[in-house]
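Dear support,

I submitted the protein below through the web form. The confirmation email said the job was done, but the results page showed an empty box. After a refresh the structure appeared. I'm attaching both so you can tell me whether what I see now is the final result or a partial one.
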Amino acid sequence: MYDYIKGTVEFIAPQYIVVENGGIGYRIMTPNPFVFSVDGKVQTVFTFHYVREDLVALYGFKTREEKGLFEKLLNVTGIGPKGALAILASGQVQAVVQAIENEDEKFLLKFPGVGKKTARQMILDLKGKLENIVPDYFPNLFNDALETTAFGNNEQLEEAMEALKALGYSEREIVKARKVLEKENKTTEEYIKAALQLLLK
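What the results page shows now:
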């Protein structure tokens, strides 16, 4: 129904952003809200309108590739919107695609809510079907390594911790990430990516 929304981001929460367009504030659920910024500039959010008997929501993404992978993940038995967001929150679309193509169940099992059965189903349903969704990631698919960064012990760190909770990570996992990464100072977006990369190792 909505392909994208252009507007200014007026509010950022651990689970969603509010984008104003034409005097209307759209509440959009997104994998990592902190990749957006409240700076008064017009931003494009690629959206997916999700409708279910008990839920109607807008999901938004920085790129069409993320949106495309989100839609594909929703077609996998055992994965709902929350699970798909958690998978995309790392910002490592290429790594997820690589894991599916390489049948790397161990990597997929590190995401919240993904068990052996779901990981296997992801591979069965999506392997060989993602090139049209994320074509830019395929040329270097087997050469690129995941980056690692660090967390800071400040307000941005707290925002990142809240975002991890919203994605479904346990307190034990969050504490583990904090202990390892709390010595550095980064932006909230960098903190979230760093924590997710740590948790996915």
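Response: this is the final, complete result; the empty box was a page-load delay. Residues 155-167 form the longest helix (13 residues).
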